[in-house]
Amino acid sequence: MKLGLYKKQKLCSPVAIDILFGGGAEFSRLVYPLRAVARRNPGRKSDAPLAFLISIPKKRLHHAVDRVQMRRRVRESFRLNHHSYPLPDGERIDIAFIYVASATTPYSAVDRSVRRILESLQAHYAKDCE
Hints:
Elements: H1 14-22, E1 27-31, E2 34-40, E3 50-55, H2 64-81, E4 93-99, H3 107-129
Parallel strand pairs: 3-4
Antiparallel strand pairs: 1-2, 2-4
Helix pairs in contact: 2-3
């Protein structure tokens, strides 16, 4: 199995981002050092079941080097783990990972957080489809 990360999995449409944050989230979970917000988006043109974005606020990490490092850690963890938690067929879900810690954290903590978020996301949407 290829563990790639493709352009169609990146959430970059301003309209989709406004829907995700403006319309009230269906799923929200805090697993330190990340908070996840997710919502169904059946109108998304991309055929990827899961589209994501990563937000590392400047308020939390003041140095750009630290923000880039944490963004890379979250992206790598998502790339390696999103195949392990499949969603129900036909679902198109947008998810945002928001960094809430005020200092950089090791990759192991970020990976554990992403895995727990994806696990609970899968359980949440599997429960809704039953």
